[in-house]
Every structure is written in structure tokens, then in C-alpha cells.
Amino acid sequence: MARVAARLSADGEQSTHPVDEVLPVPKLALYGFQHVLAFYAGAVIVPIIVGGALGLTPEQLVYLINADLFTCGIASIIQAWGIGRIGARLPLIQGVTFTAVSPMIAIGLGAGGGTAALLVVYGAVITAGIATFAFAWLPPRAFRAVMRLFPPVVTGTVITVLGIVLLPVGLNDAAGGLGSPDFGDPKHFAYAGGTMLFILLLMRLGRPFLSSIAILLGLVGGTAVAFLLGDARFDSVSKADWIGVTTPFHFGAPKFEWFPIVLMLIVMLITMVETTGDTYAVGDIVGKDVDSETVARALRADGAATALGGVLNSFPYVAFAENVGLVRMTKVKSRFVVVAAGVFMIILGLLPKAAAIVASVPHGVLGGAATVMFAMVALAGIQTLAKVDLKEEKNALVVGVSLAFALLPATVPVLFKEHMDADLSSLLNSGVTLGATAAIVLNAVFNGLGKDDAHAAGALAAVPAPAAAPAAAPVPVPAPAAAPAAGRDPEPDPEPDAEPAPAP
User: Domain ranges in the chain?
Assistant: First the structure.
């Protein structure tokens, strides 16, 4: 094992693994499992919150978590590997979107709670997924017209908002997890601080291989220390079943009602902005140009995954910003690492005992690692905004006012809970929803619509050089005018979906 680690470390010094590189199995396993640990808390928290709010039994809640992990695995493989013209073929992990939490709870409570409420939720999820999938097949001219709503000032703001909104999630875990009886106990902050310090130390002093799995080592090391001190328990592992198979429509046939469907369609509009921003951000990180067709493929994967989620007892899916931050931190750019992570997620979805082991990571340890990653998400958004002329007052207003709107739900929750209609509150009580909507509307008001998709037109004309070159030296990328546009039937080609080879 030591020789394997040494060999991997030596390899790590030579390459940061381009996006289309297939790594050796040991690396795929380690890097893929790190992605799983990085996204695990965010993946399971949505079914936990929604299931708890709807009054599901513990057994039903476990089933929701397993179904979520299983579907996450399939969705991530579709996005990273690609099937035909579906999937961005970038290292993007698919996870359940936080934007849908409040609307789904509102829909479920309006339907009376319990599993009967889930059927109404799933009807809306399936419909919204199909609509998203269909939207991404619009003709090139129509799709690019819509993409003009998302120039860098909008997508950069949305990514920054995501990081800022997610940071409290990591900090709450660092405090012991919301609802825990000892929330705020200094020992949780001690675990979080120790884990964070260990990760930062590995990033600063470690060899390239150690730096690339710093999050994984931080989680494992922090959990080991907590176990030795009696603060990490694995009792739930013995209680969990060995096998848990997810079956379509486990809770019954979905029900299709107009208001839940409209609400979920609005949610998917916001998730499309998220995925668009994450696609451009990760393309920037891995040094691969992203055009409208790439975004369209990413959105098709979102739509397909969301519709599949409704069938397999899960929820709407989006490209997970948390893992974009991880790609930036580790500099491991291979999309096949995400494929490996998808395989791990499918296995976890089938093995409740294995999922219970991962779920036993103490909140404090998880919070320390999550805080570092979420901060990197916000930084990815700031880097996108660096391409925008913020000296221009109009752009500055778009960013600043959107950030203010994003902080409103967390800062003044009473406005949404006591002074707003329940249906409207379910839609607006989300920092991501308000921030993204404000960015789109304010940009349209102040800047109007560009002549073309601002990203494809050259907003990303300079992307970071590969790791072998100095980070400060941008590499010009040819304008992607010749790239296939969304919805266009390419010329006959034995490999119409093959990606261009990465630059040496």
C-alpha cells in the first residue's frame, strides 16, 4: 500500500489530470470517494429535512436517503460520462438542489403530509424534469436567446450566492448540527477547527497527492480522533440492513396537480441558472472552453436526472457547487473521477450499512471540511465576477443588490414565516432563489440583453492555464463560433460527441 501511495504521489507531481484523462483505478477510487464524502452531507440533508417535515417514519426516511444516493450516482455518471448529447462531460457531481426544499415542504404539507404528500411532490418533480429536458433541446437560436439572460455578471453572482448561502450549513455542522442537544458545544468547534487546520496544513505543506485528497484525509483523521475520544459512534451501522434496493414508485403512483407543478417549474428555472454557472465555473477551473451546446447538454442531464428522481422516489437534481469547489482545491480535473464517485454512490444507495458508516462522521468534523469547500465555491463565483467590469456602476449594482436579496431569508426570517402568504413564502424563502432572480432581473433592467450568449461570445476568452504553466498566465481560447450549437444536428461523424483532446 505504501508503494502504491508513493507511486500515486510521484504521478501527482507531474500532472493535474486533464478532464478527459482516465486515471489508474487506485486514484479513481480515492479521488472518487473523496467527492462522495464532500457531497454526502448535502445529498442526504434534503431528504432528511423534507421527510422530517412531512412526518415520515424512520424506515421511510432511510428509504428516501438510499433512493437519493442511488439516483445521485446514476445522475452523476450521466453528467460526467455523457450519453449521446446528454451530459456536459465535465467533473460535475449531481445532487438534490437545496432550492427545492421549501417548495417541496409546502407542497407536501398542503397535500396533508405523509407518503400521500410525496406522491404529489413526485408528480411535480417528474413534470418539471421533463420540461427542463425539453427546454434544453430548443433550436440553437432560441436556446442562445435564453442564454443571453445569463452573462458572467449573473452566473458569477449566482455562484457567489451559492457559496455564501452554503457557508452557514457548514458552520452549523461545525457547531454540532442544528437540532442537536449540545448545539454550540465548544468541543464541536474544536473538531471542526482541528479538521480545517489539518486540511489547510496538507494543502500548504503536503505533496501533490496528499493535497489532492486533503478533504478525505481530514474527514478520516477527524473521525478517528473523535472515535478515540468517544465522540464518534457507529451504533447505527449494526441496525441498518445489508441490502436496500430502490424500486420505481415505491410509495405509489405520482399525482399531478397544477399548483405544485407550476411551483416546481419555477424551482427548475433557478436550478438551470445554478447548473449554468457551475458548468462555466468548472470549465474555467479545468481549462476547457464551455459553449452553449455544453450548457445545453448539462441541462439535459439535469432534466433527465430530475425526471428519473421522481420515478425513483427522489427529488430535483442540479450540478453540485460544493464539488466544484473540491475540483478547484484538489486540481484533479478528470471527469472520470466523478464517474467513479457515481459508482460509489450507487453502491451506498444499495448498501444501507455502508451509508450508515459514512453518515457516522461527526458533525464537527464534517463542518470543518464543509466550511473550507463552501468558501471555495464562493471564491469560484468571485473569480467569474473578476471577468466583469465592476467599475461599471450598473454591474456593481447587479452584484451588490443581488447579494443583499440573497441574505434576506436568513437575516429576516420572520418576514417569510409570519407576514407572507404560505404559498408565496414557499417560493421566496430561499437565498438562492431571491439572489438568482434579482441578478437576472437587475441585469436585464440595467444592461439589457446582449447580442449573444455572453460566455460563448468570449467572456471566457482567457481561462487559467494548465497547472504546469504559471497560474497568472492566461491562455487565449479561440472563439467557439464553430462549436455545435444546442439543438443543431451535427454533420455525420463516427464520433459526434467526442470531446476535443485537452491541451498538453
Answer: 20-382+389-448
